Predict the 3D structure of the following.
Amino acid sequence: MVAARAPELDVRAAVVTEAMRLFAAHGFDGTALQDIADAVGVTKPAVLHHFPSKEHVRQAVLEEILAHWNETLPRLLLAASRGVDRFDAVFGELHRFFAADPNRARVVMREALDRPEQMKKLLRGPVRPWLAAVADYIKAGQRGLGHYADVDAEAYVVHILQLVLMATAAAPVTRAVLEDDAKGRYDRELARIARASLFSPRDAQKESPRPEPARSKKAAR
Amino acid sequence: MVAARAPELDVRAAVVTEAMRLFAAHGFDGTALQDIADAVGVTKPAVLHHFPSKEHVRQAVLEEILAHWNETLPRLLLAASRGVDRFDAVFGELHRFFAADPNRARVVMREALDRPEQMKKLLRGPVRPWLAAVADYIKAGQRGLGHYADVDAEAYVVHILQLVLMATAAAPVTRAVLEDDAKGRYDRELARIARASLFSPRDAQKESPRPEPARSKKAAR
DNA sequence: CCTACCGATCGGTAGG
DNA sequence: CCTACCGATCGGTAGG
């Protein structure tokens, strides 16, 4: 059922929502204005009444993602405490941001492929302070909190960001490799890789699962 | 300068080469048959003489990538020795495969986004034995060679594959974040993340394996 | 006059 | 392999 008569502002928002979904699935070139119009339930000229051109629809989609990102950013930067807890908080915010709507990750990835120069500007502009802040956290950790000394903070942050992007975007595909409970396993391993490659073990493991046994008591099948 | 009169077989190969480059840069939907024809230096119907449809050009591009992959696979599976050395050899082969031509990574990523179902079949088919073999290496390492006990071998391999794909595909973009010597730093950090998240330090670090600390307590409150 | 559209069609280009 | 085209569909805009 449709919400009957929706004010004109709802059309704009609906176009952005449907365009994000269609761009994520088929790309910008693979999506016709008619597809967007059909998804919203209006005519194509109606879409072009709210957006001067298809290009403006794309910009609106990217701005929507960036706006949500800027909402998440403060929570992320103010994330809890220190050490492993702070890492888990920051990583969790990042992962949830894209996992909450994998289409965000797909659109960003397609944008990076389709318009590398524009994505460079985004990285040098709005995204850079956030990357720098997280990298500073890591550098502080290297000076006394048990991070690996040989971590390249900036490169690490970029790689982890890419990994989260790719993992959330491609989750339905990669799940074809694992048969059982694939979602939980991928998410867990993703967080483990990010954590284990940052923290030297004496600080990273709070739960003492490895009491340095001469022989591991874990039975491998 | 052009090699003057090229036999008809060269046209087919040239179409695949140029199509790979164009598909990587602009995507399948963003590339016209005329673009490919222009890049090769023939007419559009000439392209369609060698390939019944644009879809066949795409398949040929994917088969080209898969063929190269299958050339690399033996070297990769027979990679040297054990432990860290074998890891470096396997990871090195994987990374070189995509770094040698980043367009391979871009085409694969676009394919995963555009045709998830077809990519699933590829993962369940030709790619799976390779993933399973590498995962088995890791499981063997967990039983005595110093890999982290909590590594999810299959999920780890998939994530590292994704990370290498994304990092090579997006390298020109991410290099916008780092100013100096970005290439070397990203490659080095990529390998470090993969290695550090797999090997427990007493085996991975030849310098100073940490003795077991009495308290593995973390600094958090 | 404004808004929010519609039916029809613009110039170009797609795959074939 | 080229010239010459097709049915359709592209993004975008006309008048009403």
Summary: Residues 1-6, 203-221 of chain B have pLDDT under 50 and may be disordered. Chain B touches chain A through 69 residues (CB under 8 Å). Chain B is about 70% helix and 0% strand.
